Amino acid sequence: MNFATKAIHAGIEPDPTTGAIMTPIYQTSTYVQESPGKHKGYEYARTQNPTRTVLQNNLAALENGKHGICYASGLGATDAILKLFRPGDEIIASNDLYGGTYRIMVRVYQEFGLKFSFVNLADPAALEAAITPATKMVWIETPTNPLLRLVDITAIAALTRARGIRLVVDNTFASPYLQNPLDLGADIVVHSVTKYLGGHSDTVMGAIILNDDDTAQQLAFIQNACGAVPGPQDCFLVLRGIKTLHVRMQRHCENAQRVAEYLQQHPKVSRVHYPGLPDHPGHELAKRQMRGFGGMLSFELAGDRMDEAVHVMESFGVFSLGESLGGVESLCTHPASMTHASIPKEEREKNGLKDTLIRLSVGIEDVDDLIQDLAQAIG
Ligand code: P1T
Fold this sequence. Notes:
This protein is α/β, with parallel strands linked by helices. 37% of the residues lie in helices and 15% in strands. The mean pLDDT is 97.
């Protein structure tokens, strides 16, 4: 089955009772049993819910994986993966990544004895140098949040596979429409489903997709034992959102390319980070690894003045200033004070994230209106 057909049909059957084409919202906390232990496969809704099962199977199909497991948020999914490790285990992560991922690693799991190092994974040689005998996992974002750097999943997978290290790819920015990390050698894919998969800025959710049966069993155990499960209404909204994922992503990509090209020629813009631009350092890799360049970009204004960056962010009419991304509506974010504020300033600046960086999640509105909005806001 090809992607668009999978998005609409994979794992989804008409309701056996009524024939309803849309998966019902099983809004229940428990299921009636005939006698103790004799039931139809469902006991308690933290453990299983039919709406959630359908979504999990659909997500697994989109990532060409065997198992899909959903959590109450993207960070809930990250939390479940980190619980696979024990004190003394070392984890290497991209030095450019979502601030909340950095925060759960450093402020929560480091306190429990896990060890983290943050490395520029755009350079596989830097990863090789950072690996020690205690390294148990490598955590990649690609493209990274918010600098849109590209990391070579195949090259990193060759290094991790040979050493028995797990490779996790946060595929939130690309979405499964543009990139399938399991096909490139990753062991685990994680998503903030909140973003492109949901697509309509109305749900917070996370998911893990993987092939390995034992790890899937451990993660499903954590899902039930720790309890960070999404509710059935949210699962329904995401199932509905996914039905148009391919169509939305095509427009996100087209619009972001036009916006990036507009910004690049703007005299007041000094730098545009978008993998679809031929001079982006990851452009060739993106062409190999992805099926499009995505809807996310970030940029810096000439002169690097904070007051000017703030003025631009305050002046938008169509773009809304807010955290998050991947919805149909265009959003603008100030990473230094919003999504990445939990990373210390020195750490941010060492990795190239300036206080003046502006991040855009380019929506699927009419692109001429978006460009006009940028023109009036930048001046
Ligand atoms: O917000 P949540 O669903 O818990 O997902 C966390 C998360 C994980 N991975 C990536 C790459 C992310 O971007 C996020 C959340 N990011 C934002 C809210 C943001 O505006 O960048």
